[in-house]
Amino acid sequence: MAKKISVKLILELRGSGMGRNAIARTRHISVNSVGDVFHKADENGISYEDVRDMDEDSVYRMFYPDKFVQESMYAQPDYGYVHQELKRVGVTLKLLWQEYQDQCRAAGSIPMGYTKYCKGYSDYTIVNRLTNHLEHKPGDAVEVDWSGPVMEYVDTATGEAVKVYLFVATLPYSQYSYVEPCRDMKMDSFIRAHVHMYQYFGGVATRLICDNLKTGVVSHPREGEIVLTADYEALGSHYQTAIMPAGIRRPKQKASVEGTVGKVATAVIARLRNEMFCSFDELKAAVSRKLDAFNHSSFQKREGSRYEAYLDEKPFLHPLPSIPYEIATWVYGRKVNIDFHVVFEYNRYSCPYQYARKTVDLKVTDSTVEIYSGNTRIATHNRFPSGRKNQYSTHQEDMPDRFRISPWDDVRIKNWAGAIGKYTAEVVGRIFEGVSIKEQGYNPALAVLRLSNKYSEARLEAACEFAVTNGIKKPRYHHLSSILAANQDEIYMEQKKASDRAKTPMGYLRGSDYYGGGRNDQ
After folding, report:
1. Strands 207-210 and 141-146
2. N or C: which end of the chain has fewer CB within 10 A?
3. DSSP letter, residue 204
4. Neighbouring-strand partners of residue 114
5. pTM recorded for the entire structure
6. CA pair distance 217, 225, nearest whole angstrom
């Protein structure tokens, strides 16, 4: 029940020696309300010992009988349910109040007004030591940025100090954070840090809020569409998250990560300031340990730790894709050798032999090499590990010998189709038009033509005519086989003949003049 004043709590704190101002300041109760309870307690000679065994309602009724009767008229909301629902995306206190009103009307009880409803929720959070600051919904956003302060390690080979930059990410609701040391702030490091961040969080937030870094944002006009870099946009598409750069010169739009950057400077950088690191990996391991301690340390102004709040938030994160995002590098204008292999990093990868001496593009990730001709991918290979040289990755289907053993070629197949009929020739022609290289059309075209062995050439021609005239743009074996099995070709031909007969004009009827009648009669 919503109580205007927590009378029993005030009496308990007064009994422990706290003054009026101290109680008001620490319990977020007005000084006048605390003073009123003090005055009524002194007036009636009531101390905490007198009400120790009484419940809150009974104590409140003792001090404010008129207010208690007035407040008890209203149906009391389930504020525990309200607090949990407010964590869900899109749910507001006003929406829950409207639903509460509908429930009261259905039950025939009296609903309280919106102001009283909100006050009751505020009192509930104070009594239960909860936070009602729910601007951030769990799983709704993650904020990312680079830390201003940097770290360094000593290169043992040269004795030079090497700068290390810190990528920082925070889930605003739980304040659970991720920190990754990077050798630079270039695109590859930026994207890889995001991939590792999502793995660390074990899920994906609905929105990704970033700064207007050149590695992520091409342009952020005052009006119009924000343009992201191709790699950053591809990352967002892979993880199904909306990338939303913060407004220019408006750090409050990513206040959580801005605050975390400062805390990381203390919890990580400052705590490691007296340690010397002799390698990047050594520094990275030390940062990981301090990050873990930072996330598990208790909050100063709320219950629990970042990790405990994260466990509450994690069910609201979207699941990770089955395959992590891989950074791709494009190599353009690479010549295919006469042996139908493309050279990349001293290793050779095959593509269909028809592309020998032509120019192709390579899409290279950490694990694969994909070969493209224009927008068409013509081959995919596992990438050889770094350091391997003069290795061959050859697909058997790319080799020309596979096609030379076949007695068929496209000319011979098209001639056979033309001998059956024009519609059969049309179907076979469309098959060859829909493939990248003619050899890919051999099997599907022959499968169609061999239907004539089972059903006759006349029926195959009729089935092809039926398919073409009924709007099947790319007829294949399964289309024509179904037509023939259902005798649709024969029904179609009967209907066509009937239609042709209906269009034929009636025979000529000779009159009596022809037979000698009329004026020819003598």
Report:
1. parallel
2. C
3. B
4. none
5. 0.49
6. 11
